[in-house]
Write a structure and sequence with these properties.
By secondary structure, this protein is mainly alpha-helical. The protein has two domains: about 40 residues, no CATH class; about 50 residues, no CATH class. About 40% of the residues lie in helices and about 5% in strands. It is built from four helices and two strands; from the N terminus they run αββααα. The longest helix has 20 residues. The chain is elongated.
Length: about 110
């Protein structure tokens, strides 16, 4: 047997009930940090960590209809704080993105 040999367990056992409750669950192995063990992380799509931050894509600025759509929606939000405006403009911009580019987020 080699002294420097290393092995990693590449499987995880979970109860069938968990699989039924979280059918999209995925497990992945993180890098080793302080010990000789590799932590395994179980992620489910049903975990909600709160609202996602507002994000825009640079390519949107090259589309002429983006600025028209943005200005039209932004004007209707007069009197709100910047945080409130960003929360409310997110939905119409997502709809615009899907209509114009077929939801470019998934293509990226």
């Amino acid at each position: 047997m080699r002294q420097n040999a290393a092995s990693r367990i590449d499987r995880i056992m979970v109860p069938e009930e968990l699989i039924r409750k979280f059918p999209d669950a995925r497990a992945f192995c993180k890098g080793r940090m302080f010990s000789d063990h590799y932590p395994i992380i179980l992620v489910t799509s049903q975990i909600k960590w709160g609202p996602t931050p507002f994000r825009s894509l640079d390519v949107w600025l090259s589309e002429p209809s983006f600025l028209r759509t943005f200005k039209k929606e932004w004007v209707q939000l007069e009197g709100l704080t910047l945080e409130q405006k960003l929360k409310r403009i997110k939905k119409p911009l997502k709809a615009w993105n899907k209509a114009v580019s077929g939801h470019i987020d998934y293509k990226i």
